[in-house]
Specification:
Layout: H1 3-10, H2 14-19, H3 23-30, H4 33-36, E1 55-60, H5 66-79, E2 92-96, H6 99-107, E3 124-126, E4 131-133, E5 139-144, E6 158-162, H7 170-180, E7 188-193, H8 199-205, E8 210-215, H9 226-236, H10 240-245, H11 261-266, E9 268-269, E10 277-283, E11 296-303, E12 306-312, H12 320-333, E13 338-342, H13 348-357, E14 363-366, H14 372-384, E15 388-391, H15 395-401, E16 404-405, E17 408-409, H16 416-429
Parallel strand pairs: 1-7, 1-8, 2-5, 2-6, 6-7, 9-15, 10-13, 12-15, 13-14
Antiparallel strand pairs: 3-4, 4-5, 10-11, 11-12, 16-17
Helix pairs in contact: 12-13, 14-16
């Protein structure tokens, strides 16, 4: 298994290993799933004395190799290969979004079950009966998620469910399938899907007996057109769509949050215009160490009446000297006009720490007199009015923004990135100024 291949590559010995092989031998080796599979494409290992998983869910981006992993898994359990099953499992349910998807992607596709077999061992596909028959007698039956009732009655030892997040009747089809998985001593199922924040996906991720692996599109770069990957990453990396479709992430938002994903996507731009002022805002943690809050560090500038968020340099568990150096480095990198530092927790200490690192940096103190939600609401209003832009993507910051409601973050953690953003926006657009310095281009 490429647990083995990864080890060779990491040790720099893969080329040496292949040097003595003929072209035909190399082709055979690369066709061997045990050699070329990535770790995220291999069935989860069972810990000693642990209860076996009943669902293995691969959450992956487009082109991440999910279909190939599913096809090889079906092949492995049908043949009873030791890494997959103790003995051949039959019958197997193959469930896709539509009947055409099962046929064209899961079975006949370029990464499907037929392609995963060499020509001499390929199972017999009877399209009219929606059935695959393997040489050893194992049967795999095709089902469409458009017809949940078709799963009422049949029984199975295993199932492969492809693109569950796209199923029209996801809950109904899933429920019917669970009633049918009742054969053998370990009925199991594989789910391969690009995730969406739908109830069934979120529920499965939190259920016991569900093993989750993740696969990013870029992990499968060797099997993708270079121009495709380059274009997709340049255009979508870090955006909501890119995080979902390329990185296989579940990107959520709270209904009562001040910001929405659509609002942030509308605010996204590729570059900033000449800016009149730039500030680096710092929200220092009240303590330091491993359990300390993050130190929010966000840079933003303003052109006319439009704020442009430039960078999120927030640090995890940083000591005062560390976050001061990081904020000052960003200040100099952007030729900013000032550091804006929240001083409720540290007071004079905050200014002293910054000046100890660089006494030339001007520090503007920000003191909170209202709660976080009330402070953040005017900043969110600027986004509603189209007066705020994100130069690029800031996934961690945007996650906080779309999770921040009247009771704070759903996790209960401090919204450190968001606090720093609000201080920057407040200093640039929500605080009256007498005069504006010259325009600068980044």
């Amino acid at each position: 298994m490429l647990a083995g291949s990864s080890a060779f590559a990491a040790a720099g010995r893969l080329n040496d290993l292949l040097a003595g092989f003929t072209a035909r031998e190399i082709a055979l080796l690369l066709a061997d799933w045990e050699f070329c599979a990535r770790e995220d494409q291999w069935p989860p290992l069972l810990a000693p004395n642990a209860r076996p998983w009943r669902v293995w869910m691969i959450l992956g981006g487009r082109g991440a190799g999910k279909t190939r992993a599913g096809a090889e898994w079906v092949k492995g359990i049908a043949q009873g290969r030791s890494q997959f099953a103790a003995r051949p499992l039959s019958p197997i349910a193959l469930v896709g979004e539509t009947a055409a998807d099962v046929r064209d992607v899961m079975i006949e596709g370029v990464s499907g079950i037929l392609a995963a077999h060499s020509r001499h061992e390929r199972p017999r596909w009877e399209s009219s009966r929606r059935r695959l028959t393997f040489d050893n007698g194992v049967i795999a039956q095709a089902f469409s998620a458009e017809d949940p009732e078709s799963l009422r009655g049949p029984q199975f030892s295993a199932a492969w469910c492809d693109e569950l997040a796209k199923w029209r009747y996801a809950e109904e089809t899933w429920d019917m399938l669970q009633f049918g998985l009742r054969l053998g001593d370990w009925p199991r199922q594989l789910v391969t899907t690009t995730p969406r924040p739908i109830p069934i996906i979120k529920r499965l991720m939190n259920e016991t007996g569900v093993a989750v692996t993740r696969a990013k599109t870029r992990a499968n770069a060797a099997n993708l057109a270079p121009a495709f990957l380059e274009t997709m990453l340049a255009q979508y990396a870090g955006t909501r769509l890119g995080r979902q479709e390329l990185d296989g992430e579940i990107v959520e938002q709270r209904a009562e949050a001040l910001w929405t994903r659509d609002m942030l996507e509308r605010a996204r731009v590729a570059s900033a215009p000449p800016l009149q002022r730039i500030v680096v805002a710092v929200d220092p943690p009240a303590s330091s160490g491993k359990r300390a809050d993050r130190c929010g560090i966000v840079a933003a500038g303003i052109a006319g009446d439009i704020v442009h968020v430039l960078e999120d340099a927030t640090l995890e568990s940083a000591r005062p000297a560390q976050w001061a150096r990081a904020a000052i480095a960003l200040y100099h990198k952007l030729s900013a006009d000032a550091l804006v530092a929240e001083v409720n927790q540290g007071g004079e200490m905050v200014r002293a720490v910054i000046h100890e690192a660089d006494p030339s940096v001007p520090v503007k103190e920000a003191r909170a007199t209202r709660g976080k939600y009330l402070r953040a609401a005017p900043a969110a209003q600027l986004y509603e009015q189209g007066r705020a832009r994100h130069v690029g993507a800031f996934p961690a910051l945007e996650d906080e923004m779309c999770d921040f409601g009247a009771d704070g973050l759903s996790s209960g953690r401090s919204p450190d990135r968001l606090d720093a953003l609000v201080w920057a926006i407040t200093a640039l657009a929500l605080t009256p100024r007498v005069a504006e310095p010259r325009m600068r281009r980044l």
